[in-house]
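ugh ok fine here u go
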Amino acid sequence: MILYEGKATVRYVVLTWEGRWQFLTYGEPLPFEDVDRYSRRIKRERFTEEMLRHYAESLGIPAWDADFYGDHGVLLRDTRRLPIR
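structure:
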């Protein structure tokens, strides 16, 4: 989950696999976040697909509704310019 305000990144919660699991956060937590999960020992349990769905729905984004994407399919975004801590 990555949130922008204009061009500035204001919050992200990311779990990626690049040879190993990497969990990253940036910015102030949002009211609906389950921040207690972020300290779990197993990184892939820190941010699950169910959490992503809940977060998206909390932001009013129906990401699991195929009609949300229309004829364009899946939404992808280049995140290489993010400020990684």
